[in-house]
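Deliverable D4.2, example record:
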Amino acid sequence: MDLNRIPQLKYTTKNNFFLLAGPCAIESEEMALRIAEKVITITDRLEIPYVFKGSFKKANRSRVDSFTGIGDEKALRILRKVSETFKVPTVTDIHEISDADMAAEYVDILQIPAFLVRQTDLVVAAAKTGKVVNLKKGQFMSPESMQHAVKKVTDSKNEQVMVTDRGTMFGYQDMIVDFRGIPTMKQYAPVVLDVTHSLQQPNQSSGVTGGRPDMIETIARAGIVTGVDGLFLETHFDPANAKSDGANMLHLDHLEKLLTNLVKIRKTVNELK
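Output generated by the structure prediction step:
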């Protein structure tokens, strides 16, 4: 994958990690613009290539009454507004074949959710849009098995593909990041570490997913040391009242310190090569 082919992505020559970050779901235009502006201020200062992340809908929910979105086209238009306002690329996840062409009209990167990454028709539909495809590693899949998901994209004549590790199921209610998988998957495509989803605690009896946001910096630091190409994290100015995945999100106020520390670690890792 060539980062320079992602529209409006800055600082690609700085030998830094790239960042996919934003809210779990698009809740409103005001919240999306507020979060994007804050993250961009930080990433510009630190010269981190940045992609704004936001789900235009949430199809994988614990309960039927869980928040799923504000309307597909409405949320996608907000993603476009973020891109046009701040001159940054955007990423969103898709869940159905019909989503691929629709979302591709608005965003630069199409993300395949972890539970759906083995769905061949969905992966191929995303690849055929010509957009960058971000494949989330299934919580039930080995790092080695992701080579086949990558090949589905490249066999569809799209070389713009990356893999994101979001942890592996450990029992019923926890995730573990196996950092041995990072160098393995880097043989197939650039690798991103999804820090916040790796700290989810799913399958709670309440039907609301839990999380360990206190461990975000620990996992992120380990990812940088292990050599990930990029980081993925969800952030919000009010995680306690976020409509999706608030329990494992990073508070926006803590982002600058985290990224500042990670950039310092990345510089040290670069010197060791």
